[in-house]
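Case 163 in the screening queue. Each case pairs one protein sequence with one candidate compound; here the compound is zinc ion. For every case the pipeline is the same: read the inputs, emit a complex structure as tokens, and attach any notable structural observations.

Predict complex for case 163.
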Amino acid sequence: MFDSGYVSDPEKVDIFEETVEALKALRVAGYLLVIITNQSGIARGYFTTDDLEKVNSRMSSLFKEHGVVFDGIYICPHRDEDRCTCRKPLPGLIFRAARELDIDVSASFMIGNSKSDVHSGIAAGCRLNFLLGGERGSLSRENTLSVDSLSAAAEIILTLEVL
Ligand SMILES: [Zn+2]
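Case 163 output:
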């Protein structure tokens, strides 16, 4: 959703008004908001789980100040070579969130800025998968869409009928 590469300094967390409004609209429509993120910087030793928690709690409180609460933040701390089942493009964390939060994946949407986000959503069976910015034209699957922003994705989601 927000990609500044490896963010390990809570002071560098920033959020966008447009993102806030889009997330609020989704929440009002009844969607849960879950963050699923690969953070191999932990396994690589760039920062610790503790650092990441500080960043996440800073981000969460910034959003909260603006009226957006996340229902879950799921983190894969591994690298490719760790061969875990939770690192996107694998769907492990989506399934875990679905289990723990009682979410119907087939009525859910993945919004991400990398192909691995989209592929994890496809693997999990999400209803639609949105690729934000860049990499346009690189999508071939039917249930994927390229959009410019999270607000554009939210607008589309809100026009769909709830399953
Ligand atoms: Zn993992």
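Case 163 observations:
- Residues 49-65 form the longest helix (17 residues).
- Helices lie at 17-28, 49-65, 92-101, 115-124, 150-159.
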